[in-house]
User: Fold this.
Amino acid sequence: MSAKYATMDQFVVVLDWVISQRPDSAYSRFGLFRIAFDHPEILGSTFGAPDAMRRLNQFGAILASTVRRTDLVARDLSVFWILTPECNSEIMGCRISEILIKVEEIGLDVVNCTVDAHVFPLENADLSNARLLLESLASLPADYRFEAAPE
Assistant:
């Protein structure tokens, strides 16, 4: 069984459940990767809208097939999310490198791609619900961050 490529609605339901766990629960410790293609309009003008969407879909499918079975992958327009059980810093670094290699292979490196990894439990995050959390993560400092600028 491979990891699941979920809809955002499915992803939010799972994330809501995870963030509602007690702080001392094993389920309260997890990683959340945010892979953002900062200017999707450049992807559209570079490849044409249909090809840009195809490439983003291809990237999502590759992400879902290469992560662990316990991970959950979702896409919200040009932002991808990976929810993963607790990871150490070495694993986080390796995962970010793997993600960036896939970005280049598919040709999505024509725009700035930012990869953030947040390790939970988080301080200063709005944990009242998953949607608010996802919206706020872009403005919070990440535990691990990589910005790949186009050449």
User: Anything to note?
Assistant: DSSP finds five helices and six strands in the chain. The chain has a mean pLDDT of 82.
